[in-house]
């Protein structure tokens, strides 16, 4: 996920740059040449890193990846590839990232619970049986998702609120964890890529895919387009199909309050 979502990636990256620059000077420097140079260098570096990302429908984004033999998880080659993957995800300020996006044919993903976390959580050979079953009776969240490998498209995707994932950590130890909130959402998003899928495959139909420009012009959308739930949910929020209302992703309340501006507010769909 782009920081798997532009609203997170850009805000997070920009605010981090401002904080770092503010920590090095005792007075405002947003108009100084050094600040402008830092921004230009940051944008140039990010542009170069974007050139390394596989974009759909690249071959690596349209086929399942290979599982990593557990005997190779601690090998020098695997550790080197994992370090490169972490560095690329960090430079792009991604909330989650997976090996296929970096042209690496391996079942490896990196996730965070919120943009302010420094270290990525590593999953190798993750498995969540039935996570994309649209007929499941599990409680669901809807969300506008985008992806660094899918250009400027944003898609409405409905996923389970809570999942149980089995896999390995970067040290080759097996782990089984229950995930919810943004952490679960990011893991399922990256799991799609490991299966050769994208948000285009997981959305409910073509009308549920919009451009970033259209997303910025939601005030011009017809009422209840493309659905009542999607219409009232702004980027960065979940729509809780159990409570029938929008909610802030669990675990991101503080970050959301600091960085987001409610446009529709929390709205409940009346029957």
Automatic annotation (TrEMBL):
It catalyses: N-terminal N-formyl-L-methionyl-[peptide] + H2O = N-terminal L-methionyl-[peptide] + formate. The keyword Protein biosynthesis applies. Keywords: Hydrolase, Metal-binding, Protein biosynthesis. One of its GO terms (biological process) is translation. GO terms for molecular function: metal ion binding; peptide deformylase activity. Its EC number is 3.5.1.88. The keyword Protein biosynthesis applies. It is an enzyme of class 3 (hydrolase). GO terms for cellular component: mitochondrion. It comes from the Eukaryota. InterPro entries: Peptide_deformylase, Peptide_deformylase_sf. Pfam families: Pep_deformylase. Removes the formyl group from the N-terminal Met of newly synthesized proteins. PANTHER family: PEPTIDE DEFORMYLASE, PEPTIDE DEFORMYLASE, MITOCHONDRIAL. Belongs to the polypeptide deformylase family. This is Peptide deformylase. The lineage of its organism: Eukaryota, Discoba, Euglenozoa, Kinetoplastea, Metakinetoplastina.
């Amino acid at each position: 996920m782009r920081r798997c979502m532009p609203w997170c990636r850009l805000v997070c990256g920009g605010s981090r740059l401002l904080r770092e620059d503010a920590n090095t000077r005792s007075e405002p420097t947003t108009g100084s040449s050094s600040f402008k140079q830092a921004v230009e260098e940051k944008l140039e570096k990010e542009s170069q890193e974007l050139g390394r990302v596989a974009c759909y429908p690249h071959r690596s984004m349209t086929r399942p990846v290979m599982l990593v033999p557990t005997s190779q998880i601690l090998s020098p080659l695997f550790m080197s590839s994992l370090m490169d993957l972490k560095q690329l995800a960090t430079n792009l300020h991604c909330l989650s990232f997976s090996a296929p996006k970096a042209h690496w044919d391996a079942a490896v993903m990196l996730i965070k619970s919120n943009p302010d976390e420094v270290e990525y959580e590593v999953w190798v050979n993750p498995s969540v049986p039935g996570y994309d079953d649209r007929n499941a009776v599990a409680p669901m969240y809807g969300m506008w998702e985008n992806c660094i490998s899918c250009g400027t498209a944003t898609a409405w995707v409905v996923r389970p609120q809570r999942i149980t994932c089995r896999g390995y950590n970067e040290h080759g130890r097996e782990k089984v964890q229950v995930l919810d909130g943004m952490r679960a959402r990011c893991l399922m998003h990256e799991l799609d890529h490991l299966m050769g899928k994208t948000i285009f495959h997981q959305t409910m139909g073509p009308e549920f895919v919009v451009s970033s420009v259209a997303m910025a012009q939601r005030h011009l959308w017809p009422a209840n387009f493309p659905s009542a739930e999607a219409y009232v949910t702004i980027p960065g929020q979940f729509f809780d199909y159990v409570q029938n209302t929008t909610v802030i992703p669990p675990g991101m309340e503080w970050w959301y309050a600091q960085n987001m501006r409610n446009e529709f507010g929390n709205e409940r769909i009346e029957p």
